[in-house]
Design goal:
30% of the residues lie in helices and 21% in strands. By secondary structure, it is α+β, with helices and mostly antiparallel strands. A hairpin with a 5-residue loop joins strand 22 and strand 23 (426-432). Bound molecules: flavin-adenine dinucleotide.
Amino acid sequence: MDYDVVVVGTGIAGTCAALAAHEQGARVLVLDKVGRDRAGGSTRLSAGGFRAPTEGYTADDQYDDVMRVTGGRADKAITRYVADNALSGIRWLETMGMEWVDSAKAGRPGLTGRRVQPWRSKPVPIELDGKKQLGFGNGAIQMLHKTLLERVDVRFNSRVQQLRFDDQRRACGVQVFSADEGKVEDVSAGAVVLACGGWQANVAWRVRYFGPAASEWVVRGSRYSTGEGVQMALDAGAAPAGQWGGPHTPIVDARSAPFECGETNVNQYHYTIMLNNLGQRFVDEGADFGDRTIIRYGRSVLAQPGGVAYLIYDSQVAHLIGGNTAEFEAITAGSLEELCGALGLSFADAQPTIRAYNAAVQDGSFDANTLDGKHTSGLQLPKSNWAMTIDRPPFYGYKVTGGLTFGFGGIRVDIGSRVIDTEDRVIGGLYAAGEMVGGLFYDAYPGGSSLTYGTVMGRSAGANAADFAKQALLVATS
Ligand SMILES: Cc1cc2nc3c(=O)[nH]c(=O)nc-3n(C[C@H](O)[C@H](O)[C@H](O)COP(=O)(O)OP(=O)(O)OC[C@H]3O[C@@H](n4cnc5c(N)ncnc54)[C@H](O)[C@@H]3O)c2cc1C
């Protein structure tokens, strides 16, 4: 065997799998299809928020939050396992070089201390295609890759294009195309961990699973998440799992780059009103805090004509609103007519809606930090909290759309991250973790969950793969 464990992918899941396998004494090779400067997948572009228990937030709370947000459909055993192991995962990451910043003090607009993501990786800002990104996820990748490169063999520009199996259908290696050497080679191993990210950047799959309009969607994460890992696992008999028609689409600035825009979401629309291209409201913007409705409402925005909407607000709440981005500012104007013109929204369509809304706003005291109950009355579609008239210049607006983080469909694994086939059998020696696993989230996930799942399940995938490889070697040599 060339290696005990081969890990495919250098995002959070692959990095954790490789470091955990190495801790078990395994000889580890990590392969990534891109160069070192692009490695780290969507993890590198992420906001670096990890959900884990903290003071006043227990593992049970975390489990309950996932179950609540997913309507009880998330895999219960895995949800329990992750909730119980999230904090030890955080501590383990620290031993691998991870440092944290205080979310509340991170200078990231839109983050309130209320959110249960105290674990945010220390940022290393990046500029991608001329656009600045805050670099929280990039910080995580830089810190963890430093340790990774010191401890195990890593080959970049190495695309895994096929899995290898022995005559008992146990994974025994991979076929790799090395772009640097321009050649295809086989690497043998005692076990393989797939951590190739999702399929959100595969336009054909987007259209297949989300519908024709999805070809035009903004993709927030890595342009390299094209589903090869999922496909290789399916080809090997893995069971598809989870919500294949379910996209994670927060509301993002419509000026976002079509790929790898990173953190351009606008979370604080609950203080605004949101109009579609016809000048009509279409959701109760103030039903809850934006970070609790953003995925559902992102889908609503995508369902509007042209897949876009406009946030409209005035000077009374302007200090509360900002894109979570280093890149975009709100559009500002001295009058609503001017604002609509600058946003590309018909004032003739928008004006009656804004007028009716203003007339429906009830007295009450506005409190940005609680569900304040300051509401509208008499509208067919109410605004239940934070209803402020929009009549004090200057006026502000954002044109927004839904941006795809990833899709919830993937392959099935058990709590040991072992890949399960369509007949409910374990595929020996094959492990998977991260976005390519399905059945973990439905409709949405509590913010900060995906990085934690990648950590906890990636870690277990690596440790279990190392054990499997060790056992296989013992059997072979006895
Ligand atoms: C803008 C943005 C913000 C986010 N913020 C957060 C947040 O704050 N908290 C949170 O929990 N989640 C967040 N997420 C989601 C989270 O970042 C991702 O779900 C998670 O990082 C995915 O990790 P992964 O290891 O599964 O995949 P990735 O990080 O995408 O890594 C996959 C790797 O596999 C490689 N690869 C793919 N195919 C092959 C192949 N055939 N051969 C070799 N290599 C291959 C890729 O090049 C890539 O390096 C965010 C996502 C985005 C886009």
